[in-house]
Amino acid sequence: MSDRAPPGTRADYAAFHTLPTRWADNDAYGHLNNVVHYALFDTAVTLWQMAEGCFDLTGTEARLLVVESGCRYHAEAGFPDTIHAGLRLGRLGRSSWTTDIGLFRNDEPDAFAEGFFAQVQVDAESGRPLPLGEAARRAVLRLGV
After folding, report:
1. Does the structural domain 10-141 have CATH classification 1.20.58.480?
2. CA 104 centroid distance within chain
3. CB under 8 Å to 110, separation ≥6 — which residues?
């Protein structure tokens, strides 16, 4: 028996973004190259942050830094699949948080890949950790399931 956790389901995630695949995303084996998974994670998290409107995405006052990331692969996907990226809160600190991301292929109920982005908000000038404001904290908490 495997110690590996089974893939998450769509019900495990709080917010979703639909992302297309491209022909160039496939590798020589005909499935998504591993670097594409990270690009999908980054795109989904950034789209969510943009939609929330409470993060300084200009970097003039604060910057959001990815300080750790990871991915666990369960199955293959590739062009021309449509990817649905699910987001949920993994952990919330004073100036940092972790967003868990599940990637779902077409209408499949189980994630083909799951990963995370740990981010910290820092002051744009000093680079020192900057506590999340109330609006950003409330937005991140909405990712809890």
Report:
1. no
2. 12
3. 6, 7, 8, 9, 74, 75, 104
Strands 15-20 and 62-73 come out as: unpaired
| Category of 85 on φ-ψ map: left (φ > 0), alpha (ψ -120 to 50) or beta | beta
Inter-residue contact 144 to 13 (CB < 8 Å): no
pTM score above 0.90:
yes
The domain spans of the chain are: 10-141
| Max Cα–Cα distance, the chain, nearest Å | 51
Q: And the tokens for 144?
A: 């809890």
Please write the tens of the pLDDT for every residue from 60-74: 999 999 999 999 999
pLDDT digits (tens, 9 = 90+) for 75-88: 999 999 999 999 99
